[in-house]
Amino acid sequence: MDLEGYSELSSDQLIDIYRKMVTLRLFDAKICELFAKGLLPGFIHTQEGHEAVAVGICTALRKDDYVVTTHRNTGHCILRDAPLNSLMAELFAKETGCCKGRGGQLQLTDFDRGILSISIVGSGIPLATGIGLSVKLRNTDQVVVCFFGDGASNTGQFHESLNMAALWKLPVIFVCENNLYAMSVPVSKSTSVKDIANRAVAYDIPGMVVDGMDVCAVFEAAQKAVERARKKEGPTLIECKTYRFGGHFYGDDWKLYRSEEEVEKWKKKDPINKFKTKLIDLGVLTEEKVKAIDQEVTREIEEAVKFASESPALTVEEAMKYVYER
Fold first, then answer.
1. Alpha-carbon torsion angle 193, 196, 198, 200, nearest 10
2. What is the residue range of 312's domain?
3. CATH of the domain at 147
4. How does DSSP classify residue 304?
5. Angle at 145 between CA 144 and CA 150, to 5 degrees
6. Which of 147, 205, 220, 315 is packed most tightly, with the most Cβ within 10 A?
7. Who contacts 325 (Cβ-Cβ below 8 Å, separation ≥6)?
8. Residue 325 has pLDDT above 80, yes or no
């Protein structure tokens, strides 16, 4: 790991990047704990292991840009400044949630912050392309980031969208979070190419393969793609090679389709530990500051849990609001 891509960032900004990755990790750990206690409905899909991808990409964006994400989305929402209180309340299915308790993790959306979550595999890709067309028609220099997994790259929507975005030079950055598994199916058994980024060649757009466990490398790639999009030069496909440390969802028995040795091998590449070590070596971080960040973030998350748990539960009548018959 080097910090070449961060040459224009201050020590405070580097520490903020580290803090964001820690926030994503600790938020994931907390919602898994709450789900295990039966306090959260539905399913929980964590980003543990993906933090460098989320933070590296989103750090390159402006507040008026757009993010289209998947069911593995809480980190992206946090990075788009969704308040932890409303995000946690949504997972608790409370009216005070960002989607008034009706969306849960599968459909986390905050239009004011330009974020849209789509839980159906691959379906966010054409929506991001449509938002990109809107940007072009409005003649702004906004960009659209679309996160999706390796499994989504095998859908027709992926190919149709990349073709259209390339043809019309839309400002869309397609980010494939390749964590090697589409649920339980390894990418080696589902995908014909070694590098998904190679598929960009078919549409005559840049394709980049990035170490998704290295936040610096991800940020540097994102910067290049954002600059290209803002210049109205068209889309970019970035493939981030990453890994989810847990199962497809919390409670998934991942030992049925991968070995403990494989998981431990990837945990040695933990993006947070790698970045922390680098910043300490450079004198940007200290062990005392690391401990303080952990404590601050933990307190903020606990406050969000308190807010969510104390928010009133939906009544049956309230739960039926916004439901329409045709």
1. 130
2. 4-319
3. 3.40.50.970
4. H
5. 145
6. 147
7. none
8. no
